[in-house]
Each structure stands twice: as C-alpha cells, then as structure tokens.
Design goal:
The chain is globular and about 50 Å long. It has one domain. The relative contact order is 0.15. It is of the alpha+beta class. Helices cover about 25% and strands about 35% of the residues. It has a six-stranded antiparallel sheet with strand order 1-2-3-4-5-6, with helices on both faces. Strand 4 and strand 5 form a beta hairpin.
Length: about 150
C-alpha cells in the first residue's frame, strides 16, 4: 500500500511544462525568465518588512561566482531580481506568502565591464520603457553588490 501511495504522489508532481501553464505565458519577460530560470542559481533573498515585500536574486554561473567573490559581474553574467508583495498566510498563523509580483529587474554584464539594466513591472511583467538614469544606476549598483548567501 505504501508503494502505491508513493507512486501516486510522485507521479502527480511529474507534469510536462505545458500542463502547468508555461506555454500559455505570452512571449514576454515572464516567458524569457521562465526559460532562463532552469539555468540559474539562487544567489540571495531579501525581505523588506516595512514595505511588505520579498525578493530573490537569481544568477547564472558567472554571476554566482562573482557574488561569492564579491566582485562585480563580468561579461556574460546575468542577474534576475524578482520582487513581490507578501501577505499573511490565512492557513498558518505567523506565516507569510507571496501576493503579487512587483517587478523583475535584469542586469547583464557586457563588454568592458558595462552593465545593461532592464525592468519589467506588474503581474504581466510589462517593460518599463522609461526608467530614469538615476534609478537605473541606483538599481544596477544595488543588484550587482549583493553578496551570495552562505548555504550549507
């Protein structure tokens, strides 16, 4: 009986990507992020209790190595900072769960130690076409200076 229960539970979790909605996502920042996330590692996570937001910084292997060495990302490094609002979990006292996506910020290392910055806003992750120069520089600096979390 235990083996049958195990097989039922594990087979339920083994669905193809199109069954969980990946193909239904428009060809947008969301879809690009979903495709890229398979090749990314979690670098660190952030929480802002005052604003009730949480974020996770993902990066490819080059970005992860830079974060571990606390050096700026080099050419080819890609960082994704996904941020969302959080709310109290109605099922678990004191628990906090994700609510709505706020933004996806992308920083890419390019030739000559330059960094390209893009930001996508809201649930649909629509491109922010006019982020100010000051905001771009502030956010790039914030993202590329995050230290990698120490994990066992």
């Amino acid at each position: 009986m235990g083996i049958i229960l195990f097989l039922l539970l594990t087979s339920h979790g083994c669905r193809r990507q199109d069954e969980v909605g990946v193909k239904s996502v428009k060809d947008s920042a969301a879809q690009i992020f979903i495709r890229q996330i398979a090749n990314m590692s979690v670098i660190t996570s952030l929480s802002n209790q005052k604003k009730k937001t949480q974020s996770v910084l993902y990066g490819n292997e080059a970005a992860l190595e830079n974060a571990r060495r606390q050096s700026p990302p080099r050419e080819g490094a890609i960082l994704f900072l996904l941020s969302w609002t959080s709310k109290s979990d109605t099922e678990w006292f004191g628990g906090i769960v994700p609510a709505d996506v706020i933004s996806l910020e992308v920083v890419q290392g390019t030739v000559g130690n330059e960094y390209q910055y893009s930001r996508f806003l809201g649930k649909d992750l629509k491109a922010d076409r006019k982020p100010g120069i000051a905001l771009q520089e502030e956010r790039k600096s914030f993202i590329i200076t995050q230290k990698a979390a120490v994990m066992p």
